[in-house]
Automatic annotation (TrEMBL):
<dbReference type="GO" id="GO:0015293">
    <property type="term" value="F:symporter activity"/>
</dbReference>
<dbReference type="InterPro" id="IPR001991">
    <property type="entry name" value="Na-dicarboxylate_symporter"/>
</dbReference>
<feature type="transmembrane region" description="Helical">
    <location>
        <begin position="70"/>
        <end position="92"/>
    </location>
</feature>
<dbReference type="Pfam" id="PF00375">
    <property type="entry name" value="SDF"/>
</dbReference>
<keyword id="KW-0472">Membrane</keyword>
<feature type="transmembrane region" description="Helical">
    <location>
        <begin position="104"/>
        <end position="125"/>
    </location>
</feature>
<dbReference type="GO" id="GO:0015184">
    <property type="term" value="F:L-cystine transmembrane transporter activity"/>
</dbReference>
<feature type="transmembrane region" description="Helical">
    <location>
        <begin position="335"/>
        <end position="357"/>
    </location>
</feature>
<dbReference type="InterPro" id="IPR036458">
    <property type="entry name" value="Na:dicarbo_symporter_sf"/>
</dbReference>
<feature type="transmembrane region" description="Helical">
    <location>
        <begin position="223"/>
        <end position="243"/>
    </location>
</feature>
<keyword id="KW-0813">Transport</keyword>
<feature type="transmembrane region" description="Helical">
    <location>
        <begin position="369"/>
        <end position="387"/>
    </location>
</feature>
<feature type="transmembrane region" description="Helical">
    <location>
        <begin position="6"/>
        <end position="21"/>
    </location>
</feature>
<keyword id="KW-1133">Transmembrane helix</keyword>
<feature type="transmembrane region" description="Helical">
    <location>
        <begin position="184"/>
        <end position="203"/>
    </location>
</feature>
<feature type="transmembrane region" description="Helical">
    <location>
        <begin position="393"/>
        <end position="413"/>
    </location>
</feature>
<dbReference type="GO" id="GO:0005886">
    <property type="term" value="C:plasma membrane"/>
</dbReference>
């Protein structure tokens, strides 16, 4: 018991160091990078001294995870209130309900288009690196994972594309505010849009009631923004804990065994990121300035492996640092966490399909196979949240639609966390790219905010 206590004492000292940086009013980027570096160093030390599967390591991480899991839980706590009041407020203040269709259509269109290109990138890197499922050895964990995936597929067989779309609608908005369904985030977006439109309609007919409603929304936004600022101030500590757990719990031998797939995955993710930056440049947005402003968000997404948990920081950054409209920021962050995920629903299923294709006699370079794969990946990415979301279920849908053995998707379980970090960061960047471009298209961008070099405080921009 002595060693875990000593480890936790060191962890407490690292937290104290981050607290000192925060008190010294260092920038968020500095705090985040420091937390990331300290987490990597502390996690590596734990693994080197005690080993991945040691009791001391496990007991230490159990308590370290209180900070990491607690922070992610607090982020999830503020997601629904933030989306609800922000979207209602954006619609009430703009008083332009006609732009909602253009806004949502632009964001969803960009998400789906980039997912299709991401699938094509997955095909390219898989063939470039010569990836194949034939050479991967199935251990006990891999076989158990494969059996679990086959069982999961049985529950998905009765879910149609129409059912996925239907699940987006808020039959019970109070249940969706509690996050009771995988598609609750989108359902809350739709509910908030209806409330905002109703508020605008009332304001046109009865201006006094409209003014009272707008005042109520202002108060709600101020309270929620203060809550967001309180939670986001804990970001460096959350990243420290999350990165410690990832590094200390990673099995180096498993990573080396599947190193080819890991490298291919990150090459593919890098190409998707380049695609995002090219789209921004094509629309007159400086890629380097954009990347500098969103880096803390991408780092948190990387360490947390949670697109949903990154929503508050995503929205805050789009509004305060990129100068995007509040409507575009909220819609893109919400939609991007549940559909059109470039990394999880685009790249990953396509790479798996290309790997498995030779094992069942399919030429992975066959144009008809590639076209059908991209089409299936794009469609499944739109409705994947209706059946649970994430890379695993995206892969299940794509492989089953192509009549491929889904059990082979369990071959990569040992390196799943390592790859999932990069995929999540790319998912979040895809959402921010969609919001930034759509905001520019609709003329809702604040060029002054985007051009500003100094880093703003951790709070949403007051309208």
């Amino acid at each position: 018991m002595l060693y875990p206590i000593l480890n936790l004492a060191v962890f407490a000292l690292l937290i104290a160091l981050l607290f000192k940086l925060q008190k010294a009013k260092k920038t968020l980027s500095t705090q985040v990078f420091t937390g990331l570096g300290l987490g990597v160093a502390f996690g590596a030390a734990l693994q080197f001294i005690y080993g991945v599967d040691s009791a001391t390591n496990s007991e230490t991480l159990e308590y370290v995870n209180i900070v990491g899991y607690g922070y992610v839980s607090l982020l999830k706590m503020i997601i629904m209130p933030l989306i609800l009041v922000s979207i209602i407020g954006a619609i009430v203040k703009v008083k332009d309900t006609g732009s909602l269709g253009k806004m949502s259509g632009g964001i969803i269109g960009i998400l789906l288009a980039t997912t299709a290109v991401s699938a094509l990138i997955g095909v390219f890197v898989s063939n470039l690196f010569g990836l194949s499922a034939e050479g991967i050895v199935q251990g006990a964990r891999e076989m158990a994972r494969g059996a679990a995936l086959e069982t999961s597929l049985e529950g998905l067989a009765s879910v149609s594309f129409a059912d996925m779309i239907t699940s987006f609608f808020p039959g019970n908005p109070f249940a969706d505010l509690a996050g009771s369904r995988p598609t609750s985030t989108i359902a809350v977006v739709i509910f908030a849009a209806f409330v905002g439109i109703a508020g605008v309609t009332v304001a046109r007919k009865e201006p006094e009631l409209g003014a009272s409603f707008e005042r109520f929304v202002d108060v709600a936004q101020s309270i929620v923004r203060t809550l967001v600022r309180m939670v986001l101030s804990l970001t460096p500590y959350g990243i420290l804990a999350l990165m410690t757990k990832v590094v200390a719990g990673s099995n180096v031998s498993d990573i080396l065994t599947l190193l080819n797939f890991v490298v291919a995955s990150y090459v593919g993710l890098a190409l998707i990121l380049v695609m995002h930056l090219c789209l921004l440049a094509f629309n007159g947005i400086s890629p380097l300035r954009y990347l500098k402003k969103v880096l803390p968000v991408l780092l948190f997404a990387f360490t947390s492996r949670s697109s949903a948990g990154t929503i508050p920081l995503n929205i805050d950054t789009q509004v305060k640092r990129l100068g995007n409209g509040e409507g575009e920021s909220n819609f893109s962050a919400s939609f991007g966490a549940t559909m059109g995920q470039n990394g999880c629903a685009g790249l990953y299923p396509a790479m798996l399909a290309v790997m498995i294709a030779p094992t069942i006699g399919i030429n992975p370079l066959d144009p008809s196979f590639i076209i059908s794969l991209i089409a299936i990946v794009t469609i499944s990415s739109f409705g994947i949240a209706g059946i649970g979301g994430g890379a695993t279920f995206a892969a299940l849908i794509v492989l089953s639609a192509l009549d491929m053995p889904v059990a082979l998707a369990g071959l990569l379980i040992s390196i799943e966390p390592l790859i999932d970090m990069g995929r999540t960061a790319v998912n979040v960047n895809g959402a921010m790219t969609a919001g930034t471009i759509t905001s520019k298209w609709l003329g809702h961008s604040d060029a002054g905010v985007f051009a500003r070099d100094e880093e703003p405080e951790l709070e949403l921009k007051n309208s």
